[in-house]
Amino acid sequence: MFGLRFRDRIEAGQLLGRELAARFGVVDDAIVLALPRGGVPVGAEVAKALGAPLDVFIVRKLGVPGHEELAMGAIASGGVRVLNRDVIDYGRITPQQIDAVAAREERELSRREAEFRGNRAPLDVRGRTVIIVDDGLATGSTMRAAVQALRAMEPKRVIVAVPVGAEQTCEEFREIVDEMVCLRTPEPFEAVGLWYEDFTQTTDAEVHALLSRNPR
Predict the structure, then answer these.
(1) Mean of the per-residue pLDDT values for the chain?
(2) pTM metric for this prediction
């Protein structure tokens, strides 16, 4: 087990960046989007290895009223909203209920974007190769929402890249993205944090600093 662990997110990002560079070479139109907060230190190293711009991609789940753990959709950076019509129809959820939940989550998304990005505009992904990065995949629910939302923004290609993930989850992503890169799929998996010696929570200030240092 211990031989499979990364020292921290920086080492994980360096190794992931090296693998992506070896696999894809120079990708002139690449953009690295990191899921905050833990994906940002990883994404920063990937962006550095590929010579690509870095941005955050914030996803907020839209929970069913009264059963918030059940997602009826998601919103994401760039004003994207995706809805799960099956859940909405089954739960007989009204447009007014959807709008109320979305408004609440949009406020939190806007707060996070202002905290992380400051006054910098989000990168335009239309027609670009987008590499979405996180520090690991367990169930993959947030990443799945990110991919779905990102597709609505019309990128040329979507690549999901993580240092570590549950094997089944990584396999499932191969069906919904153009490329899936996962360095390690240890079994039993249990939790992302088990595969890092240092899994200290990334702060808002660290995210802001990493984005500020990345040239566009």
Answers:
(1) 92
(2) 0.88
